[in-house]
Amino acid sequence: MGAKVSYGTQPDAIAALLGLFGDAAMTLSYDEDRAFAALSLSRFGSMGSTRLYWRGAEVLQSSPAFDGGELRKLLRELAGPDELAVVFWGNLGVPSIALEAGLAAVHADAVVACCLECWVYLVDSAVLIEFQDGEGFTVGRVPC
Q1: First-to-last CA distance in the chain?
Q2: Distance between CA atoms of 22 and 54, rounded to whole angstroms?
């Protein structure tokens, strides 16, 4: 219950990003966030409070780069431009967003500038991109 109370209470953290996306991005409700998390993040174990445990998952690639250019490259390689992407932040106070992967790629610098960690779930591909600032990206298939 506590997570529901605090979810989305810090939308200012992504206000500039939402301004770039305009009406093309949707801020998710708590229930929508949890539904997409059940299809992606929640299927992994965790290491500490914000890192995924990738053992046993099909890791497609990893990169030590931790910038928008690398996220842009990954999104363009892994997703169709119209594929739905859900961006989860490391802080539940910041609401998750849904948008087309192509738009996320265009504004990838702004996405990684918003946070120290985030996850981008490519819905149709069932692929998850984990970003940890200073450590880079890990990309893998979401376990069934």
Answers
A1: 27
A2: 34
Q: Which residues pair with 84 in a beta bridge?
A: 100
Q: Which of 65, 69, 63 is nearest to 138 (CA)?
A: 63
For residues 14 and 138, give the distance between their C-alpha atoms in angstroms, rounded to a whole number.
23
Helices (H), the chain: 2-6, 15-21, 30-39, 68-78, 101-106, 108-113
Q: Compute the chain's Rg from CA coordinates.
A: 14
Strand partners, 99: 85
For position 111, what pLDDT does the model report?
A: 96
- Write the pLDDT tens digit of every residue in 24-74: 999 999 999 999 999 999 999 888 767 899 988 999 999 999 899 999 999
- Inter-residue long-range contacts of 45-51, CB under 8 Å, 24+ positions, other chains counted: 50/90, 50/117, 50/132, 51/117, 51/130, 51/132
Which pair of tokens denotes residue 79? 């997703």
108-133 per-residue burial string, b: 16 or more CB within 10 A, e: under 16: bebbbebbebbbbbbbebebbbbbbe
Paired tokens of 38: 């059940």
The H or E element spanning position 64 is: none
